[in-house]
């Protein structure tokens, strides 16, 4: 009878080799996971439109901090798109949209407050003229 041992020796190199297929599988799934996240082109367009709308509302002058933040985040989102970091691009584009909407609301609020002040002043002048005419 042949007494050849079928027992394998486990060397550190042999153990490391057994992990290679698992590591390769994990690396491949991470790449697939990143590649499967779609480019947020629609959100980029929505954010760009939100910034343009805020600009038309006068936010550059009336809410400059929020506009600067919105533009910065959109620029970083565009850079992330170029780098194909779509998840980050989406997050930044959404944040840019929020900042732009805030800037627009602040600008419209400031414009409305100014208009209300003008109406109050016009009413005051009109009352004075009426009082003078009644005397």
Describe what this molecule looks like in 3D.
- This protein is mostly helical and 135 residues long.
- It has one domain (39-134): Substrate Binding Domain Of Dnak, Chain:A, Domain 2 (Up-down Bundle), CATH 1.20.1270.
- Helices cover 83% and strands 0% of the residues.
- It is built from 5 helices and no strands.
- The chain has helices at 12-35, 41-56, 59-62, 64-82, 86-134.
- The longest helix has 49 residues, at 86-134.
- The model has no long low-confidence stretch (mean pLDDT 85).
**Helicity, as a percent range:** over 70%
Radius of gyration: 32 Å
Binned strand content: under 5%
Question: How many domains make up the 3D coordinates?
Answer: 1
Element order: H for helix, E for strand = HHHHH
Main attributes?
mainly alpha; Substrate Binding Domain Of Dnak, Chain:A, Domain 2
Briefly, what is this?
The chain is an all-alpha fold. Helix content is 83%, strand content 0%.
How are the secondary structure elements laid out?
Layout (H helix, E strand, L loop, with lengths): L11 H24 L5 H16 L2 H4 L1 H19 L3 H49 L1
Helix pairs in contact: 2-4, 2-5, 4-5
